[in-house]
Amino acid sequence: MNIFRILGDVSHLLAIIILLMKILKSKSCAGISGKSQILFALVFTTRYLDLFTTFISVYNTVMKVIFLICAYVTVYMIYVKFRKTFDSENDSFRLEFLLVPVTGLSFLENHSFTPLEILWTFSIYLESVAILPQLFMISKTGEAETITTHYLFFLGLYRALYIANWVWRYYMENFYDQIAVVSGVVQTIFYCDFFYLYMTKVLKGKKLSLPMPV
């Protein structure tokens, strides 16, 4: 395992912890897209089914379990524990616009036509677009809380670090996974505008705001 993979996993875990702490501390889910969190829970569920069939390492198993637990705890807090604070009106992105093409693509482009492999491929494609409901929500409301922007920053950083991980593996291990790489690049592109605003506004103490859709 290389440093980019470890830093990527840490960044990913930190993003989730930041989100959970935000909800628990404020006792509110305001500004958080429940639909994005449902998609991430679906991503982890379909990707980590191999927990029951394959053992890679203690680290790998522990991280998978942590991500699964955190994903479902987040969904629980949004839709059950703090549901009265959830802004369902602005969390209006239609998930079928993502799930239908992602499902179709996972059947058409995969490494092997087996149930686990198709579900793994589905999770990779879905993760690349799972943040869109959250970004759409921020665009619709016109702004985001600072703590939410920190969550998004570390989530985007995780993807950028994984691109570095793939470059390292290509040169050091001669390993290349086109599906994972292309999907990761697509996901990182979605964060580019956000990264710019984060660096120029949030880190200078200003509130992040986005142009509202017409």
Automatic annotation (TrEMBL):
GO terms for cellular component: COPI-coated vesicle membrane; endoplasmic reticulum membrane; Golgi membrane. GO terms for biological process: protein retention in ER lumen; protein transport; vesicle-mediated transport. InterPro entries: ER_ret_rcpt. It is a multi-pass membrane protein. The chain crosses the membrane at residues 62-80, 120-138, 150-168, 180-199. GO terms for molecular function: ER retention sequence binding. It comes from the Eukaryota. It is found in: Cytoplasmic vesicle, COPI-coated vesicle membrane; Endoplasmic reticulum membrane; Golgi apparatus membrane. Keywords: Cytoplasmic vesicle, Endoplasmic reticulum, ER-Golgi transport, Membrane, Protein transport, Receptor, Transmembrane, Transmembrane helix, Transport. Its main location: membrane. Belongs to the ERD2 family. This is ER lumen protein-retaining receptor.
